[in-house]
Write a structure and sequence with these properties.
By secondary structure, this protein is mostly helical. About 70% of the residues lie in helices and about 0% in strands. It has helices at about 5-20, 25-35, 40-55, 55-75, 75-95, 100-120, 125-140, 150-160, 165-175, 180-195, 205-225, 230-235. The chain starts with 6 loop residues before the first helix and ends in a 30-residue tail after the last helix.
Length: about 270
């Protein structure tokens, strides 16, 4: 059976055109992929590629929304590995369109799904976590646990070339979007950097202690207020995702602002 006209073949052609900096040919190939897609999964992927190859913020947002909506129609296990990317792309599109509140929501949804995937034994690469973290920062969101001391420490470690310490601390920083569990992991990573011989030296040791103390103080404050996450984080995320990826069924939910759902799954 020939695969020349299948969505997968068109995706490959589109990616080759992108690599050759031929934007028009890439859009044409991904459009053909969309037109030949017969399943929600294939349509979600095709729309995702079209969002990334769009030349206007309007088209990027339209195709990003379509990709998430199509993923909502697919079987959960068919799309779970792409959900984080779909959410981040939609968040990026909202940010480019100036809708920062909605962008924050979808960065948070991406973070929640990514964390659930990792807790279930999966893996999310650092580039994706970095996109979520930088996206939230661009929207003006500062998560619980991320004090000024943390960012001062990272700048200092970069300047001093302390890459061993960075390899311990930075992943925990990127994965911190404000839940108490994430902040506790950040504090534990800072402790590890502090107590590992030769990893942290000089004035950086004081910065590590200050960053860990600030993180733990914020956790204590949220506990005293009866909140599992910071008030801002809870408001931005629109609710928490229940971890336990393998045991959780796919559910379609609406966000109350559109006839079509932006968020297809709650884990």
């Amino acid at each position: 059976m020939s695969t020349q006209g299948t969505p997968g073949a068109w995706w490959e052609r589109g990616l080759e055109a992108q690599a050759a900096n031929d934007a028009a040919q890439a859009v044409a190939a991904f459009t053909q992929a969309w037109e030949t897609s017969a399943t929600p999964r294939d349509r979600a992927i095709s729309a995702h590629y079209l969002a990334h190859s769009s030349t206007t913020a309007e088209d990027q947002l339209r195709w990003a929304r379509i990709s998430v909506e199509q993923a909502a129609e697919a079987e959960f296990d068919e799309v779970v590995e792409m959900l984080v990317s779909l959410y981040v792309t939609l968040a990026d599109a909202y940010r480019e369109s100036g809708e920062l509140d909605r962008a924050r929501d979808y960065y948070m949804h991406g973070s929640e799904v990514a964390e659930a995937i990792e807790e279930a034994g999966g893996s999310i690469d650092e580039v994706t976590w970095g996109a979520i973290s930088s996206g939230l920062g661009a929207c003006g969101f500062v998560a619980q646990g991320l004090s000024e001391d943390v960012f001062t420490l990272i700048d200092s470690l970069v300047e001093s070339g302390s890459f061993g310490a960075l390899s311990v601390v930075l992943p925990a920083v990127l994965r911190c979007t404000g839940t108490d569990a994430q902040v506790q992991r950040l504090a534990a990573a800072l402790d590890t950097a502090y107590w590992t011989p030769g990893l942290i030296g000089g004035s950086d040791r004081m910065l590590v202690l200050a960053a860990a103390a600030a993180a733990r103080a914020q956790i204590q404050t949220s506990v005293e207020q009866g909140a599992g996450v910071s008030a801002e984080a809870a408001e931005q995320s629109g609710g928490s995702v229940v971890a336990g990826l393998a045991a959780s069924p796919a559910q379609q939910v609406t966000d109350g602002e559109s006839d079509a759902p932006d968020v297809p799954f709650r884990l």
